[in-house]
Amino acid sequence: MSQDAAIEQHYGRPGLLDRILKSLAKQGVDGNDITIETLAPLDEFHVGGLFATRRIASRLTLMPQDRLVDLGCGTGGPARAIADISGCTVSGVDLTEEFVTTGRALNDITGLAEQVTLTQGSILALPLPDDAFSHAVMLHVGMNVADKHGLMREAFRVLQPGGRFCVYDMMQTSDGDLKFPFPWASDASFSAVARPADYIAAAIDADLALEAQHDESAGAASMLSAMPDSGPANRPDGSADPFHNLAQHIKTGLLAPTEIYFRKPR
Ligand SMILES: C[S@@+](CC[C@H](N)C(=O)[O-])C[C@H]1O[C@@H](n2cnc3c(N)ncnc32)[C@H](O)[C@@H]1O
Predict the structure, then answer these.
(1) Which stretch of DSSP H or E encloses residue 86?
(2) How many angstroms separate the CA atoms of 70 and 85, rounded?
């Protein structure tokens, strides 16, 4: 099986929209009550959820005239939240077809279809023009993408000169073996966890300049334990819980949710 097919098999389960709507209905949420906030536990697939997405939007200081690309957008939770809070337009690209079709339906339901466009594709060959975006984000995707140089080259290509790129990934921050499963991979065969220095080296090779780096470990482990069982990597076979496992790795300092900001020079 190719790497892309393994990733899509890991994340994509048919009937996702139906499961999301049923889960909301169970909580008494339907119609106009389906908002960025009520959806957040179900459509933000990264540590810190909506809180982390809003932190990133704030650090990027986005304006309504900005155009943002979300690399590996999942079902578009972060894309919708950023569009909603900043007024900017967002274009999301994700490998997993089920996420993209679910995300388009959620764009319609939340009234954000004019502002948020989702497309199926690989971030290593973005179906997007050169120099088209003022900002780019990538949230918890690089752990599945071994070719960090390729992803940095694509981010550089689609950004306008002066454009900023925020990477928010789980990164390895001390020596030691990773013990699977994690939410992004049940085993090491399609995991590509790297160190902050690897991302930075790949970005610099792609001519992106480093602006800032933040370790967001504080509070992450407790947020993880609050994540719902209905997440994209939920395992029905009774094996080790990937979220609990990730929390342990963060507590011991082997992994850290890390944000790195880059800029394409003018
Ligand atoms: C943990 S989810 C994060 C989704 C979203 N960024 C969020 O935070 O809600 C990882 C996503 O990366 C996508 N992905 C992994 N490798 C990819 C690739 N090469 N190109 C595009 N998407 C990819 C998966 O399909 C999945 O939706």
Answers:
(1) helix 77-86
(2) 15
The reported pLDDT for the residue numbered 3 is: 83
- Which CATH homologous superfamily contains domain 3-263? Vaccinia Virus protein VP39 (3.40.50.150)
Q: What is the CA radius of gyration of the chain?
A: 17
Sorted by where each begins, the domain ranges of the chain are 3-263
- 45: tokens are 């697939």
Supply the mean pLDDT for the chain.
Answer: 93
In one letter, which amino acid is 160? Q
Ligand 1 atom closest to Cα of residue 184: 1
Determine the Cα angle at 98 with ends 97 and 104, to 5°: 90
CA-based torsion, 129, 158, 1, 45: positive or negative: negative
- Tell me, in angstroms, the distance from the centre of ligand 1 to residue 124's CA: 12
Which pLDDT belongs to residue 243? 86
CA of 81 to the centre of ligand 1 (A): 16
- pLDDT more than 90, % of the chain: 81
Indicate the pTM of the whole model.
Answer: 0.94
SS3 240: coil
192-205, pLDDT tens digit by residue? 999 999 999 999 99
199 Cα to the center of ligand 1, angstroms: 17
